């Protein structure tokens, strides 16, 4: 039986909320595999009793659920409901599906949609192409530090320089430890090249022979909303074809940006007053 969750010693209300939401994010990164309590404790740095109490609170709210057999934690039904409600304003995947399908059909290569999440990028969707030799560097739900991978680099290159430097500072230790080909100086050079060419290029720096091209999707105010990218083996990413792919992606990016602008204009329209609150 679940115990009542009480405020934890040494934590005020906002700290408890911050830590609970941090655990929610950690579980979301595990996708269909779910997270064990041990995983969550190791990744969060919390002690086991504190993590367990916060997890129980999230379960009670419906944001998480726990499999009774495996004891793994997964996103709950309420997380799905909240995501569905947010789709109208932030439904980038929904309005990008046609473009992803077109790109994979036209090029025969695999296309992706990625978004920023804190100092990382997260792959929202992978659309398979028909070319028989495929790369498997990125799957839906995978995340990398911003600047790692074509779509991720495109997002970072679309940000102001001060934000770029902040993100590189946050990710520096991870980059040096886990991505030996992508130190901050290399990413700075890749950003400059992306801004000059108009597209980001990953020349097999994460997995050998797995190349990618990315172009940022922007909100009407210029902020990056995400990025489209295409991945293929190196022989299909030579300079001549890079330009062809970039042109196709740029055309689809403009379509998505137009849909985003329309969606935002709909959200910005004055709302009619609720009839029940209008004085008679």
TrEMBL record:
Q: Name one Pfam family in it.
A: IclR_C
- The parts of the chain that form a coiled coil are none
Tell me yes or no: is DNA-binding among this UniProt entry's keywords: yes
Name of the featured protein: Transcriptional regulator
- Gene source species: Phyllobacterium endophyticum
- Which SUPFAM superfamilies does the record match to this protein? GAF domain-like, Winged helix' DNA-binding domain
PANTHER family linked to this entry:
HELIX-TURN-HELIX TRANSCRIPTIONAL REGULATOR, ICLR FAMILY, TRANSCRIPTIONAL REGULATORY PROTEIN
Q: What molecular functions are annotated in GO for this chain? A: DNA binding; DNA-binding transcription factor activity
Q: Where is the HTH iclR-type domain?
A: 14-77
Q: Name one GO biological process term.
A: negative regulation of DNA-templated transcription
Keywords from the UniProt entry: DNA-binding, Transcription, Transcription regulation
Q: Which domain of life is it from?
A: Bacteria
Question: What InterPro entries does the database record attribute to this sequence?
Answer: GAF-like_dom_sf (IPR029016), HTH_MetabolicPath_Reg (IPR050707), Tscrpt_reg_IclR_C (IPR014757), Tscrpt_reg_IclR_N (IPR005471), WH-like_DNA-bd_sf (IPR036388), WH_DNA-bd_sf (IPR036390)
Stretches assigned to the IclR-ED domain: 78-262
